[in-house]
Please model this.
Amino acid sequence: MRPEDFIKEYEAALKTQDWKNVDPLFHDNACVTFSNGAIHMGKSKVRIAFENNFSMIKSEEYSIQNVRWVLKNESMAAFVFEFYWEGIINKNLTKGNGIGTIVLINENGKWILLTENLSKKTA
Model:
């Protein structure tokens, strides 16, 4: 797998809204910061946060676009991107977007997410 392949796999896993499909893509020490500023450290805390989102946002569509690579070598990769999502919250269509940064590490030939930082897009 190449780091570019990770992005497609990550989008597909998120689309299922099922943690068991997302779990293998995260490092045990993963840290995720959501655009609301909430920081989730460690895979178990990340799992809780993602499962809360999955239960709150129905039929979510999530996409990563305009990827710009900061670093890519055989052991580590980092990229910035724009993200877009929409889904049903309390029976209402809701949308959002922002800017993200992801750092991947290569463990035994598999790219996994070490950290993800999402922020709201400003004008």
Q: What stands out?
A: The mean pLDDT is 95. Strands lie at 26-33, 39-41, 58-72, 76-89, 92-107, 110-120.
